[in-house]
Amino acid sequence: MLQKLTQWSRLKSPWILHLNTGACNACDIEVVAALTPRFDVERFGILLEGTPRHADVIICTGPATRQMKDRLIRVYEQTPDPKFVMAVGACAMSGCVYRGAYNIIGGIDQLIPVDVYVPGCPIRPDALIEGVVKLLDKIKKGTK
Amino acid sequence: MSFQIPIGPQHPALKEPIGVRVTVDGEIIREADLRLGYNHRGVEKLAEQKTWTQNIYLMERICGICSHSHATCYVQGVEKLMEIEPPKRGLYIRILVSELERVHSHLLWLGVAGHEAGFDSFFMYVWRDREIVMDILETISGNRVHYAINAIGGVRRDLDELQIKHILDSLEVLRQRSAYYQKLGTTEPSFVARLAGVGYLSREDAIELCAVGPTLRASGVPMDVRKDDPYAVYDEVPFEVCTADSCDVLGRTVVRIKELLQSYNIIEFLLKNLPAGPISVRAPRRAKPNEVISRYEAPRGENIHYIKSNGSDKPERLKVRAPTLANYAATIKMLKNGFIADVPLIFAAIDPCICCAERSVAIVDARTAQERIVTMSSLRELSLKTAKHQTRKREAEWPL
Amino acid sequence: MNDQVLIDKINEGLKDKVVSITNPAPRRLFLKVTADNLLTVVGWLKHELGITHLSTISGLDLGQSFELLYHFANNCCALTLRTEIPREQPVLPSICEIIPGAILYERELQDMFGITVQNIPDGRPLLLPDDWPAGNYPLRKDWQYERPPEVIPGGKS
């Protein structure tokens, strides 16, 4: 019974943490634009949180730079279970134009396990909403 | 008792990773220190392995907000190296997108300034209007951000009559809304009180520390690359350089709002006087060995690229200096002897381009050398609490 | 004032310190100086001509030597000072006393090329990560980077 309640609340209001691991900032501005009146994800219960300890979903943008490697792993560990990771943008998926640069490790899936990939350079806020919906489906079905 | 606080790479305020260590004595900041490098992607080395055309797409992705600035600065330099002259219509369209980018960047900044000052409704209203500009950019180029409208030798897509009419109509709406924001942003007492007197940078300091952009112009120095070193069609377009004399965050807000209004006028002029003709010329694959310096006025300041070619189809050296980097020395000066609670606002005032800086604040107590990591949101709450008890400092200077 | 006026003033004021001046395009001047005269020339430019805005410092790897370009700007032209230092002994005087805004650009030169800047007020590395192995200077021409193989989670490696 309690489990059904927590499952329902997890689905109805996923709280997100927005983490930038070295991106050009275009995806980040589109993530913030998703909170503004035209796209308005807050009506789905999505709230932008400041600290990893309160978040359910980590939204990661940007290719993982070497300097951010430890910080990314630390933030991932600080988020309480069950947690989900969304890799947003072509940079977080594979490194985009920066593949081969000396300070880039690649996409963030080289460091932490990722649940949903959202393609685009940069993403559209509509694609972000679709990504969140797919993530909620995944949570509902219980696959992880 | 001074105290050192590291403001670390991940924090809730704005979206880029930069590390700041701030040494405080009570509430007053004694020393500040920046740790860059979280966002360093090695673009200059990567550019030496890509051809001239591939580099346009790499240059765009140095920054998401001012992507057209970097691409245009680069393409201007390469056109000089290859000794080709793009046609007038191409240049007009290029500058049209530049001014639209300036509009979108300043509206973004206004929203962020409102958010950092605690005025979230302002943030939401301004970003709703920014969507009008994003629609225009999508109609012209096909994408909301990273427009890729430049090609070596001109632009990639043309404008037709319907698009021009759409832009002129949207401009009317934007002008009305901006008049409202101008009134709100400069006469609303609590907003003005929050901004006035914060982040003071005197005129001499701004010149010595080589600041650029609105940070410099708010200290009364009329330096603008569009007037000093006109590129593309700026020698034909009438506009004024906007300055303010108050040397603080309020002055920077005033400068940006004035530039917004100037940009609307420039866009209208460009659309009404668009010449007919081709939009680009064919570019060769290789460039003769030569070197060139290209300067551009991005929304944040002066953008400078140095390009050297050695006769092949890849550059020999490409050096980029983005405008936010030039404002860092000035930021450290502004942080000293300020209050802890003003840190988010001072950072937001230089309009940092996240690809250059990260914003987490670490506060270190200088007396006991203990560290305490403070998130930007708690700093913001602290700043809002302090602002409530402050008396109103001054009115906005607005020679309307 | 335009380019020709500036060239005349520089020729008059800095007769033997400047090796050559070129003016390849409108509003672009290139001056070549030796590394010993760098500080005098920068000081003269600041005090006599009022040119204080340093846009950036570029470094170039020419094989046998490093070439440094100091890009200055004022309201009528973009002036660049060019100087060369030998590769075996890459040492350069700092101009931070005359132009305090040059500090970040000099730190970047130290990181990227391994050039030692003397009398620099704050010589810590600027851009490279904390765990970067010492002695690797990315922008030198002979430094190559081998990308380690990538692991594709859940797929073929």
Q: Main β-sheet of chain B, in a few words? A: 4 strands, mixed
CATH domain class of the largest domain in chain B:
Mainly Alpha
**Rg of chain A to the nearest angstrom?**
15 Å
CATH fourth-tier homologous superfamily of the largest domain in chain B: Cytochrome-c3 Hydrogenase, chain B
Give an overview of the whole structure.
The complex is a heterotrimer of chains A (144), B (400) and C (157). By secondary structure, chain A is an alpha/beta fold. Chain A has a single domain, classed as Rossmann fold (3-Layer(aba) Sandwich). Helices cover 35% and strands 19% of the residues of chain A. Chain A has five helices and seven strands. Chain A has helices at 2-12, 26-33, 69-78, 90-94, 125-141; strands at 15-20, 47-49, 57-61, 64-65, 84-88, 104-106, 116-118. In chain A, the strands form two sheets. A five-stranded parallel β-sheet of chain A has the order 2-1-3-5-7. Chain A has a two-stranded antiparallel ribbon with strand order 4-6. The radius of gyration of chain A is 15 Å and the shape is globular. The mean pLDDT of chain A is 83. Chain B has two domains: 2-40 and 334-388, no CATH class; 43-197 and 275-321, Cytochrome-c3 Hydrogenase, chain B (Orthogonal Bundle), CATH 1.10.645.10. In chain B, 46% of the residues lie in helices and 15% in strands. Chain B has helices at 43-47, 52-60, 67-82, 88-116, 120-141, 161-187, 189-195, 203-208, 214-217, 225-228, 249-272, 323-326, 328-335, 343-349, 376-388, and strands at residues 2-7, 19-25, 28-35, 150-151, 154-155, 290-298, 301-309, 315-321, 360-365, 371-374. Chain B is globular. Chain C has three helices and seven strands; from the N terminus they run αββαββββαβ. Chains in contact: A-B, A-C, B-C. The interface between A and B is large, with 42 and 41 residues.
